[in-house]
Design a protein that fits this description.
It is a single chain. The chain has 132 residues and is of the alpha+beta class. The protein has a single domain, classed as Ribonuclease H-like superfamily/Ribonuclease H (Nucleotidyltransferase, domain 5), CATH 3.30.420.10. The protein has helices at 37-54, 67-73, 82-95, 112-124, and strands at residues 2-7, 10-20, 23-35, 59-64, 100-105, 128-131. The strands form two sheets. A four-stranded antiparallel beta sheet has the order 1-2-3-6. Strands 4-5 form a two-stranded parallel ribbon. The radius of gyration is 14 Å and the shape is globular. The two termini are 16 Å apart.
Length: 132
């Protein structure tokens, strides 16, 4: 998953690349509106969690190139920014509904597909879903 903004704040989008049993499955892109990069990252996480729960998944692994988000979700960093706190709390509430949850930081190069989807949301100023 990835979030990004063009300007900070600026037009913001989220991209979620979903794999099922290690194979590409779905791609989600969501236009967030005018927001910050960090809030766009959290929007991507919330959307990914909601999507998985809506489809009955109870075990999930999340990969993000946002070290801040990963460390905050793991409890390694405090959430000091009031603008992130609401999204952080929503994320935690959703995470608690999974039987198994893990989140890992990955280098930007390993997150290209999600980045492409976030940019698609920005380019189109729209939200949508792709089937691979």
């Amino acid at each position: 998953m990835d979030g990004g903004s063009r300007g900070n704040p600026g037009a913001a989008g989220a991209g979620i690349h979903l794999e099922l049993d290690g194979e590409p499955w779905r791609g989600l892109y969501e236009y967030v509106g005018i927001d910050t990069n960090n809030r766009a990252e959290y929007a991507a996480l919330v959307r990914a969690l909601e999507y998985a729960l809506e489809r009955g998944f109870r075990k999930i692994r999340v990969y993000s190139d946002s070290e801040l988000l990963v460390r905050q979700i793991r409890g390694e960093y405090q959430v000091k920014n009031p603008g992130l706190l609401e999204l952080y709390r929503k994320s935690v509430q959703l995470i608690q509904r999974f039987e198994q949850f893990s989140i890992s930081h990955v280098p930007r190069e390993q997150n290209r597909q999600a980045d492409k989807l976030a940019n698609k949301a920005l380019d189109l100023r729209a939200s949508g879903e792709e089937t691979y």
